[in-house]
Structure to design on (922 residues):
């Protein structure tokens, strides 16, 4: 076994205890999450900066369909976080079949989320909202909406791919529960970001 | 020969052995908080107030997810502090620009934010 | 533990095919050398660009033979147009900051020596490491390709201020395709640095061998670690900023362009954005970037000085704390680049305070270096000379920082050659001296041969004098009112400065030519240099405990190193040598044990 292997686990006697007792792979995903949080924060700050400074920011989102859709998407994403958690928990307990099942359920939830999101996008594009134009006023409304939700959607799609790849390898015995935990941390983070995207990008822009 | 210090053997902190019930309670709390955000979206206050309320609720939601779904609470306290302080500091350092945002409309130095106006 | 990690399989046997060994290698040592090669290529490109700029500044109508081959529109009849001057200047800045100052001291040396210094076989994610280099290399190719598309590279300066950078081709040559290529290149670069940072931090935290507690890490390792923590979040903010900039170009958004902008008598189709937003996002990255360039050099210089002083620094820990304080403060001071940008004047005051505070850890570092040097019998070799040169440049450039940190003075000095002189000395030349010091110091370990000391000393003295000849007059030019980015000097007060500009140009050409001595030494010594002993400097850290030079594939030849001592045990009394290696099991009374 190599040192890199050991750093992924908890070596005793051969290497120094990892700082914070967090093994390398988990440390890496946490660091990625910190960096990604900075990326999302930069986008949200840019959006807030421009929205706050615009004299007429449109608030076009109607309860139906947009807000209802956002509710459903939020429910799906938070629930998928729970199923992810159950998957990792089963994996840590050694229940491979259950862990795989929950991972696939999570991925399916991610796919449904992405499809709902795309449907919403298509609807908005149909209404004439694009990156550089919208029927209601400041063009930046569409630009910031599509960039921020697009960045999030990219993360969801990436997460679904990661879930399927890691889930498949886990089922085949080529990866273990630690890998599931890492992809799970990423998935929870995507969920966490959505908790901020919904109020800022959707709910502040509802028609009242 | 001097023995090398600092060699300990510990198991990973986050064990994922919490009961199913605990996870479900947290899940329901997060769902409820998410629901509260939707209520706030239609509450009577002005945009600034709605933003502040929803932001606080989002922090609570995110905190629950971070501490319990992502098991940060179960890790060593040092790691919890490392993640929260590092991330919090970097995100806080990003907030210098807001006064310039407030000035975009009126252009004068030291403009006050227009919290009262509904936009 | 029976799990076969995808990352670790390669560890057992060295690759044999040419591609896996030298091109797509997973070995951190090869990747470090690749980064060094990239930095060398980039620094030569950047230096040639600076020569062209300097020639144009000295003799505005000078024909530079063959320049029209690089750009027919930018240099008709081999005479540089004003726009092309700005394009070359932008590329000089971008290449130097991103592909030299970030890659060489951090990615090149760090990749090679960080795993060895912590006693590891490799970094925990060798595939990410390999991708990190190739992504960075791709970014370099994308940037260079902008010379050959459309009307050349962007002219907006390495800071790419909006709206110039955001409105597209109407803003001038290179603002269409060239600009999009620039932003794409930097966005790609950010991905490479993210992957690198992940590896550096996990290596430092999780790959330390038995006995290597955090306080036993050499100062170089601390420098790279602190740098990677800064890079982790700084580049993560630059990347979305670049993507928004690209969207302004290709998707018609207006993030960084305000309403009612008229250019060339055309009302721009943008509205609602903010030019200051770009500056806030850019400098949020930009200021940590300054420390990303210099902190690894601080670590390298401390490491080299300690080995040549034969005694530890006055305080190992205060050096680490000071570098850490620089990292923290670097996130709080970025607005000092924006004092005259139209930013809220009150913010200037807010930014000015931490900017002055950041001089405290910098000063502490300098005082520790000088205090430790005082009374030591410093071994004079090329590496230690360049380390001294680093301190000299850092002080000279740092002192002008006190002036610039104050908004009231900066209003006069902003965007003049004073600023250019300041940052060239404090971050560019100082960091380059750190790179030179590291090269002369570690060359025997990387190649197994010594570099020529006589040539090295000649190289040092000519470079040292040359750098001051180039950059000291910049301060005078700035105080005389010479604004940067002017491509010709026609006003009365500027015409009188032309002789000084010519002097600087000659100095720059000569100092550049002197680097040929370094290049010759670098390549000649590789094949004909004197064979190096395993530990030519009698140094203590783990890179000198490897069984061969260069170290074998797994760094320690199958031996599992165990660390028993603090990194810098020099000047030990009662020992046969005056030093004890970190992995030596000998019981010693530490000179100045930090524990």
């Amino acid at each position: 076994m190599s040192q890199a292997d050991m750093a992924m686990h908890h070596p005793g006697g051969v290497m120094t205890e990892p700082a914070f007792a967090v093994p390398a792979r988990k440390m890496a995903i946490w660091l990625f999450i910190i960096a990604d949080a900075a990326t999302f924060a930069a986008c949200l700050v840019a959006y807030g900066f421009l929205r706050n400074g615009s004299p007429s920011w449109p608030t076009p989102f109607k309860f139906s369909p947009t807000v209802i859709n956002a509710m459903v998407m939020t429910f799906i994403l938070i629930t998928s976080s729970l199923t992810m958690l159950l998957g990792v928990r089963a994996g840590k307990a050694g229940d491979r079949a259950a862990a795989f099942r929950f991972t696939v359920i999570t991925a399916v939830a991610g796919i449904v989320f992405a499809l709902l999101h795309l449907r919403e996008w298509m609807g908005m594009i149909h209404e004439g909202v694009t990156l550089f134009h919208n029927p209601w006023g400041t063009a930046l409304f569409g630009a910031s909406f599509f960039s921020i939700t697009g960045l999030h959607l990219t993360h969801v799609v990436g997460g679904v791919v990661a879930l399927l790849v890691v889930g498949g390898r886990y089922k085949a015995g080529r990866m273990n529960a630690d890998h599931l935990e890492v992809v799970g941390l990423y998935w929870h983070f995507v969920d966490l970001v959505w908790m901020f995207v919904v109020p800022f990008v959707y709910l502040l822009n509802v028609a009242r | 020969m001097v023995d090398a210090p600092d060699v300990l053997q510990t198991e990973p902190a986050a064990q994922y052995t919490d009961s199913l019930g605990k996870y479900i309670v947290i899940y329901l709390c997060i769902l409820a908080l998410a629901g509260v955000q939707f209520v706030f979206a239609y509450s009577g206050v002005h945009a600034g107030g709605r933003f502040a309320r929803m932001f606080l609720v989002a922090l609570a939601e995110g905190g629950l997810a971070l501490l319990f779904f992502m098991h940060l609470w179960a890790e060593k306290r040092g790691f919890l502090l490392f993640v929260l302080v590092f991330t919090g500091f970097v995100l806080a350092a990003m907030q210098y620009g807001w006064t310039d945002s407030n000035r975009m409309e009126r252009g004068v130095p030291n403009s006050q934010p227009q919290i009262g106006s509904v936009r | 533990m029976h799990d076969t990690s995808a990352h670790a399989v390669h560890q057992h046997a060295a690759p044999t095919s040419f591609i896996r060994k030298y091109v797509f290698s997973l070995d951190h040592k090869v990747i470090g050398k690749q980064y060094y090669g990239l930095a060398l290529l980039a620094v030569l490109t950047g230096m040639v660009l600076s020569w062209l700029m300097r020639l144009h500044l000295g003799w505005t109508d000078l024909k530079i033979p063959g320049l029209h081959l690089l750009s027919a529109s930018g240099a008709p009849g081999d005479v540089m147009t004003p726009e092309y001057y700005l394009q070359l200047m932008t590329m000089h800045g971008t290449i130097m900051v991103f592909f030299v100052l970030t890659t060489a001291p951090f990615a090149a040396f760090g990749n090679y020596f960080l795993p060895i210094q912590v006693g590891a076989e490799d970094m925990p994610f060798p595939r990410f490491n390999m991708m990190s280099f190739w992504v960075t290399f791709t970014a370099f190719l994308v940037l260079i390709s902008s010379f050959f598309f459309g009307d050349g590279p962007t002219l907006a300066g390495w800071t790419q201020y909006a709206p110039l950078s955001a409105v597209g081709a109407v803003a001038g040559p290179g603002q269409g395709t060239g600009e999009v290529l620039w932003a794409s290149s930097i966005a790609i670069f950010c991905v490479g640095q993210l992957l690198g940072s992940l590896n550096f931090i996990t290596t430092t935290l999780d790959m330390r061998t038995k006995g290597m507690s955090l306080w036993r890490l050499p100062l170089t390792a601390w420098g790279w670690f602190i740098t990677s923590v800064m890079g982790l979040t700084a580049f993560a903010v630059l990347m979305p900023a670049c993507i928004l900039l690209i969207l302004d170009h290709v998707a018609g958004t207006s993030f960084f362009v305000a309403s009612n902008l008229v250019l060339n008598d055309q009302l721009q189709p943008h509205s609602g954005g903010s030019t200051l937003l770009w500056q806030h996002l850019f400098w949020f990255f930009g200021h940590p970037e300054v420390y990303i360039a210099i902190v690894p050099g601080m670590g390298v210089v401390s490491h080299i000085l300690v080995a040549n002083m034969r005694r530890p620094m006055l305080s190992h820990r205060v050096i680490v704390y000071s570098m850490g304080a620089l990292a923290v403060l670097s996130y709080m001071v970025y607005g000092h680049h924006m004092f005259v940008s139209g930013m809220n004047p009150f913010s200037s005051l807010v930014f000015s305070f931490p900017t002055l505070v950041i001089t405290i850890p910098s000063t502490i570092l300098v005082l520790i270096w000088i205090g430790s040097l005082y009374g030591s019998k410093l071994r004079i070799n090329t590496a230690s000379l360049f380390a001294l040169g680093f301190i000299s440049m850092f002080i000279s450039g740092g002192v002008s920082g006190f002036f610039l940190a104050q908004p009231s003075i900066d209003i006069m000095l902003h965007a003049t050659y004073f600023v250019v002189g300041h940052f060239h000395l404090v971050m560019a030349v100082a960091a380059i001296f750190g790179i030179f010091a590291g090269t002369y110091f570690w060359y025997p370990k990387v190649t197994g041969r010594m570099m020529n000391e006589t040539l090295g000393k000649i190289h040092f003295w000519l470079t040292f004098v040359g750098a001051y000849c180039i950059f000291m007059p910049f301060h005078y030019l700035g105080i005389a009112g010479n604004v940067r980015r002017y491509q010709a000097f026609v006003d009365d007060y500027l015409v009188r400065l032309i002789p000084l500009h010519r002097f600087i140009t000659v100095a720059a050409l000569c100092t550049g030519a002197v680097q040929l001595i370094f290049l010759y030494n670098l390549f000649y010594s590789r094949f004909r240099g004197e064979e190096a002993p395993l530990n030519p400097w009698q140094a203590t850290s783990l890179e000198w405990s490897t069984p061969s030079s260069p170290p074998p594939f797994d760094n320690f030849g199958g031996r599992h190193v165990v660390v028993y001592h603090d990194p810098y045990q020099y000047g030990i009394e009662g020992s046969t040598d005056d030093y004890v290696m970190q992995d030596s099991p000998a019981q010693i009374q530490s000179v100045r044990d930090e524990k």
Remarks:
- The helical segments of chain A are 3-8, 24-53, 63-92, 96-126, 140-171, 177-202.
